[in-house]
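Supplementary Text 2. Reproducibility record for the structural model of the 120-residue chain.

All settings were left at their defaults, and a single model was retained for analysis rather than an ensemble. We include the record here because the model underlies the residue-level annotations in Supplementary Table 4.
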Amino acid sequence: QVQLVESGGGLVQPGDSLTLSCAVSGFRVSNTPMSWVRQAPGKDLEADLETVSYILSRDSTTSYTDSVKGRFTISRDNAKNMLYLQMNSLKPEDTAMYYCAIGSGGRGPRGQGTRVTVSS
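Retained model, structure tokens:
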């Protein structure tokens, strides 16, 4: 059974860091493209979901949306079957519900999400 469980969100101040984790079961992150997506407050979950980052399975190529380049880092731990998103220099506009998803497009099966709120 495929299952994704996100954790690590919270309330932080601008400039702070957070690391989101995604525990995966039912498949291996080592051979599956994975992504982090987010839903900003007031946005529609399906129509306005933003793919923040993805990592490919073959060569671990990563990609980031422009607004997080240089601040966020996606990674995975194949042995632990985990996906991570290191988020530095957080900004209020990063406030959102964050989901890990199967696939690089962010539209595959997702977990329940973890909320990140950046506010002073």
